Amino acid sequence: TIYWHVTEGHHKQTEAIKQAAQLLQQGHTVAFPTETVYGLGADATNEQAVTKIFKAKGRPQDNPLIAHVATKKQLVDIVDKYEPYVDKLIDTFSPGPITYILPSNGTCAANVTAGLDTVGVRIPNHPVALRLLQQANIPIAAPSANISGKPSPTTAKHVWEDLNGKIAGIVDGGLTGVGVESTVLDCTEHIPVILRPGGISLEELEQVIGPVNIDPALMENQSKPKAPGMKYKHYTPDVPLWLVDGSIDTLNEIVAEAQKDGNRVAALIRTDDVEQIKTDQYYLLGNSLQEIAQHLYDALRTFKKEDTDIIICQTVPEKGIGQAIMNRLKKAAHKTISS
Ligand code: TXA
Ligand code: MG
Predict the structure, then answer these.
(1) Where are the beta strands (DSSP E) in the chain?
(2) Contacts of residue 11, Cβ cutoff 8 Å, sequence gap at least 6
(3) CA–CA separation, 325 vs 337, rounded Å?
(4) Could you report the predicted ipTM of this complex, rounded to two decimals?
(5) d(CA 137, CA 133)
(6) Cα 12 to averaged position of ligand 2 atoms, centre (Å)
(7) Which residues of the sequence carry a binding annotation for L-threonine (predicted)?
(8) Which of 120, 246, 274, 339 is the residue whose CA sits 20 to 30 A from 6?
(9) Is the CB of 237 under 6 A from ligand 1?
(10) Nearest to 272 by CA among 287, 255, 288, 250
(11) Are residues 332 and 236 in contact, defined by beta-carbon separation less than 8 angstroms?
(12) Residue 178 DSSP code
């Protein structure tokens, strides 16, 4: 696995991106930063190349991938005729943390779409990703660059831990900005449907195009989710996560009891609350929902079985990017405790 630092300076960055783009064109897999999480890329038009992604991640074959492109023109080139509101969304939110599910025109290989007649497409808003996509000049299929089931990678170190030796290269562009994945929006209906909450919130979408629906499967674990990936267990930390829907006092009571039972407890905590918590180990998430989203996956990866028995974390309000944070926390959680 070749490792390029692209944060160090312009000249090196140009050379690294050239080499990475070449590997992609030759059918190899390369991990690269986006504004949400690191992606593991391969030529989306090359079925064999895409197979390498599934292999490296241990990803189920029935879970389709997102095709990444640099421009609206490239996006339009890989899809069929779509609903008029999609143009409004693209012009407002792309490049940005949103994936449009649109009718495929067959440009992408069958294993990108897992045999569906739709394809997920997005224009990532990250200078390194955009330059890499421009240089490669092909649609790049890219799921998050983690071993399937683990928290998504927000640093190149996370990618290295999971995939070193299994992929051709890693482009290190530092910590990603948004920290949770893109919003997956099914745009094949008259009224679009959020299949996965992410970097662009329901509120932001509705401001631009009016009513937007939410896949009922996201509400409770009842019906079958329309995004195949949403049915799998996800974001599982090494150590069991307890999600607490209650005050800091409640959290401290739960901590005290767990400690009495001999457990070593680590808290994922808002920076302003750190003085109040009674654990030896903690991870400072920052204070705003944006900061919490940015640090969440790193926090989930920080604590290991050797030193920690339980991770504990408070719920966040389910507004704005809080919807995406809570979606990931609930999927990662071993149990939720309500007061
Ligand atoms: O932010 C992101 O979206 C990151 C970065 C790397 O771009 N990528 C990412 O990819 O999160 P992945 O593969 O981990 O998640 C893609 C999600 C899955 O839940 C998948 O089932 C859904 O999008 N998806 C992809 N194509 C689809 C399609 N045609 N129909 C329905 N859902 C689809
Ligand atoms: Mg993923």
Answers:
(1) 2-5, 30-32, 39-43, 66-68, 98-103, 118-122, 140-141, 169-172, 183-186, 193-196, 213-214, 241-245, 265-269, 281-284, 310-314, 335-338
(2) none
(3) 17
(4) 0.99
(5) 6
(6) 29
(7) 36, 68, 122, 142, 182
(8) 120
(9) no
(10) 287
(11) yes
(12) S
Name every residue whose Cβ is closer than 8 Å to that of residue 78 and which is 6 or more positions away in sequence: 44, 67, 69, 104, 105, 107, 108, 119, 121, 139
Task: Tell me which residue of 134, 227, 169, 150 sits closest to 23, measured CA to CA.
Answer: 169
DSSP-derived pairing of the beta strands 39-43 and 183-186: unpaired
Residue length of the chain? 339
Structure tokens at 47: 């079925």
Tell me the two tokens of residue 83.
Answer: 């609903």
pLDDT digit string, tens, across residues 87-143: 999 999 999 999 999 999 999 999 999 999 999 999 999 999 999 999 999 999 999
Judged by average pLDDT, the poorest of 119-133, 156-170, 209-223, 316-330 is 209-223
Confidence of residue 311 (pLDDT cuts 50, 70, 90): very high
Q: Whose CA is nearest to atom 22 of ligand 1?
A: 227
Assess whether pLDDT exceeds 60 at residue 223. no
Ligand 1 centre to CA of 240 (Å) is 25
Distance from the alpha carbon of residue 252 to the mean position of ligand 2, in angstroms? 32
